[in-house]
Amino acid sequence: MQNREPAALSPPPPLTSLITMQRIIPLTLVLMLTASFAVAQDAVKIQQSIDKAVAYLRTAQSPTGAWSVSPRTGIGPTTIILAGLIDAGVDIDDPMITNGLKLLESSIREDGGIYTPDGFLLNYETSCAVMCFAKANAAIKKKHNKEPYKELLAKADKFLRSQQFTEDMNIGPEDPRYGGIGYNRSTRPDMSNMQFFLDALKATGAEDDDPAIQKALVFVSRCQNLESEHNTMPFIAQNAENLDGGFIYVNQPPLEGAGASEGLRSYGGTTYAGLKSMIYAGLTPEDERVKGALAWISKNYTVKENPGRGAVALYYYYQTMSKTLDVRKLPHVEDADGKKHNWRADLSEHLISVQMPDGFWGNEGSSQYMENDVNLVTGYVLLALALCLPE
User: Fold this and answer.
1) Which residues contact 266 (CB under 8 A, 6 or more apart)?
2) Sorting pLDDT into bands at 50, 70 and 90, what band is 135?
3) Are 97 and 136 in contact (CB under 8 A)?
4) Per-residue pLDDT for 102 more than 70?
5) At 224, is the secondary structure helix, strand, or coil?
């Protein structure tokens, strides 16, 4: 057996180093405890706000289980509200939830869609219903170990795929509509229906290389104010001075006039929807399209308005923003001045500050996108606040 030299002992640190460490360690602990306490306080405030909203929605639900069903909105608001309630932690067996789900079940159609008869929002309603039923299915599986909506979701997924503008409709990649989806098969595709469509596909388990998602990426790329091999739409040439990486609503906006029109201007809700859609399609942060969208978001970061639209579709913007940044796993957003923002803290603080005493939120100045419906808006906020809660 060989004799081994004893391991050399490291010399003790200088006394000054020990004193410095003794000072730093307590300070670090204090900072950590302070940060943890602040997070806990924020969580309490968010939960209190959520509880007030839930209490309000109990009073606003109709005996049929619906919120705000009308010929214009159909079951859309009810799907958004139920999804928000489930995300916010309301028990899946709560009568408010079960009654709402029964209403949605009554809207299931033979073609697999979930929508209001004689309406024109077939794809929007079905996409939102799929997200809602997928959340309900997960909650029921966790609590009762069963999945009552599994077959329903598979049929709805098939219906939605049949609504996409692709070769199945004799529409090829050269067509601006290719890969897109509208409110129904006869309406033009747009970025709002697109983001709900992709949310629904992901909710039913679609991977980023799914053919429907990759075809959707073609349409999404053509709605970005960014000239590239992926976007050679005519509006790019007219909008040369405003190719800022943001997104517009449709890729065939009005082209009259020399400058950027309402249809050519990038704005917040659509840009976050575009970024989320690209993430779903598997694009990485190195892709020029993602870089462009993130640069626009950095330059226009705010929780006080929908950038480019002001109060219009403001709460739609909040729920899209929060979902996108959560999917992107981005805890902070760096603004144009290089300042980092904890978007969860910024957004939750603002939303809590504008909540009505009765527990709801509203946007009277935006009836165009149904945001004068306080129930729908409150559903949007629940979806956003649920993502602001610390894990």
Assistant:
1) 225, 242, 244, 245, 246, 247, 248, 296, 308
2) very high
3) yes
4) yes
5) strand
Average pLDDT of the chain is 90
Residue with tokens 């990759």: 214
Lookup: tokens for 334: 């760096």
Query: Strand, helix or coil at 26?
Result: helix
Digit-coded pLDDT (tens) for 25-55: 665 555 455 545 455 678 999 999 999 999 9
What is the DSSP code string of 274-318? HHHHHHHTT--TTSHHHHHHHHHHHHT--SSSBTTTBTTTHHHHH
CB 132 within 8 A of CB 125: no
What is the C-alpha separation between 377 and 125, in angstroms, rounded? 16
* Dist CA 184 CA 197 (whole Å): 12
Q: What is the pLDDT of residues 303-340, one digit of tens each?
A: 999 999 999 999 999 999 999 999 999 999 999 999 99
Instruction: Using alpha carbons, list the distances in angstroms from residue 307 to 208, 269, 311, 332.
Output: 29, 8, 9, 18
Domains and CATH numbers, the chain: 53-388 (1.50.10.20)
Asked if 226 and 287 count as a contact pair (C-beta separation under 8 A), the reply is no
> Helices in 145-267 by DSSP H: which ranges?
150-162, 191-203, 211-221, 234-238
The span from the CA of 262 to the CA of 248, in Å, is: 9
Q: Which residues contact 359 (CB under 8 A, 6 or more apart)?
A: 52, 53, 54, 55, 56, 57, 378
Contact 385/379 with Cβ under 8 angstroms?
no
| H helices present in 306-391, as ranges | 314-327, 343-353, 374-388
- 306 - beta bridge partners? 310
DSSP bridge pairs for 224: 247
Note the pLDDT tens digit of each residue in 224-282.
999 999 999 999 988 888 899 999 999 988 765 544 456 899 999 999 999 999 999 99
Percentage with pLDDT > 70 across the chain: 86
Q: What is the pLDDT of residue 2?
A: 47
